[in-house]
Amino acid sequence: MRRAPRRSVTCVLRPGATLFALFALFALVASSLAACRGPSRAEEPRRSGEAYGDPSMWLCRPDLPDDACHGDLTATELHADGSRSIDKHVAAAAPAVDCFYVYPTVDLHLRAGNHADFEDLKDVRETALAQVARFREVCAVYAPLYRQASIGTYAASDEDKERFFGVAYSDVAAAFAHYRAHLNHGRRIVMIGHSQGAQMIARLLRDTFDRDAALRQQLVVAMPIGFYFDVPKGAATGGTFENLPVCASDAQLGCVVAYRTLAAGDAPDAKFWPLPAGREAICVDPAGAGSGTTPLSRSYLATARAPGVRGVDTPFVLLRDFYQARCVSAPDGRDYLEVAEARAPGDARPSPVDLGRHHGFLGLHVYDFAFTQGDLIDLVKKKVAALPPE
Fold first, then answer.
1. How many whole angstroms separate alpha carbon 209 and alpha carbon 51?
2. Closest C-alpha among 327, 306, 348 to residue 264
3. Edge-to-edge strand order for the sheet containing 261-263?
4. Which of helix, strand or coil describes residue 13?
5. Architecture of the domain spanning 19-72+91-287+370-385
6. What share of the chain is helix, strand, coil (3-state, %, to 5)?
7. Residue 109 forms beta bridges with which residues?
8. Are 74 and 87 in contact (CB under 8 A)?
């Protein structure tokens, strides 16, 4: 049984508000949010993984009949000659590895606190479908529900941030403990998270794989994407993680892929993304580690997030080699993944997204997974192929 709904909601922006727009609003009106910063209710950190023995506490789990990752992933592919075709997603019949995924902020309440109402999962299910469901081509996906911090928590006091993000993390850690004890069965693992989910995955990595050499042998790759993680300048380890290196090749195992996405011509906003002195942000282009500008093989955009495309009635739009990416070494160390269109002359495809409209602040944050999704999946496939025999 799912928990009964809890309705202590105030200071809400719904529906249609994007994460980008909400953070931009914070930048303009942060001083007026004091009245919205109190906790919605007193949530206590979770002390064990017992709750995750309940199937309803899982968003995606291969044995569940209502697994959110088994939704409709049909895409309309746009071809350079102006034609279109339907692309059907095909999941692996017997994936060799697991993917453990933590979703980003979907609670858009401006009141700081933890999201404890799991009655309406529409937004969470749509997010998982868009970001991680296609990884079923290569892995069995496990994604727990968790009492994530609301978007308003990012504008709260340091004390409240520590408290509410601590509660969120206690759920993720408990879910992972249950997963390891009862669901993993020694299989190798890919760790995936976006935005707040990336924060959770990074903390989980530090508390588990980073501290345990034996456990690191199970890690295929970690992908905490859409947040800043760092290393000392010129180093592969240190900083956010002591022992997990930044991925330097497609075949390297047990390493980290991370980046924040900006459009060409944009630059990171230092005011909102602090970076310790002497450090540089991790940026790994999933289409080609360290190889300069690379074409992005398959970009999957939710049709609702592709306003430049008309007449599509499938949930997703697919574009092959429409975008290109490269990691940019910023002077202040805030390295980022720069994305631009890479259309050849005569390419008749419309621009799904006006990249210029996403300059400043969060940049292309909401597209961190969309532009690179095919390459992320292919990268996992390459790493799985490089695994030593068991």
1. 23
2. 327
3. 261-263, 336-341, 323-328, 294-295
4. coil
5. 3-Layer(aba) Sandwich (3.40)
6. 30, 20, 50
7. 12
8. yes
Helical ranges in 30-157 per DSSP H? 122-131
Cα–Cα distance for residue pair 170/167, rounded to 1 Å: 5
Strand, helix or coil for residue 145: coil
Q: 243 or 4, which is more confident? A: 243
Instruction: Determine which helix (DSSP H) or strand (DSSP E) holds 213, and give its type and residue range.
Output: helix 213-216
Residue 42: what pLDDT? 62
Which residue has 């994460």 as its token pair?
A: 19
Q: Tokens 């790994």, residue?
A: 284
Q: What is the pLDDT of residues 252-309, one digit of tens each?
A: 999 999 999 999 999 988 777 778 889 999 999 999 855 678 899 999 999 999 999 9
Closest CA to 367 of 339, 329, 328, 330: 339
Distance (Å, whole) CA 218 – CA 191: 11
CA distance 348 to 131: 27
pLDDT digits (tens, 9 = 90+) for 49-83: 999 999 999 999 999 989 999 999 999 999 999 99
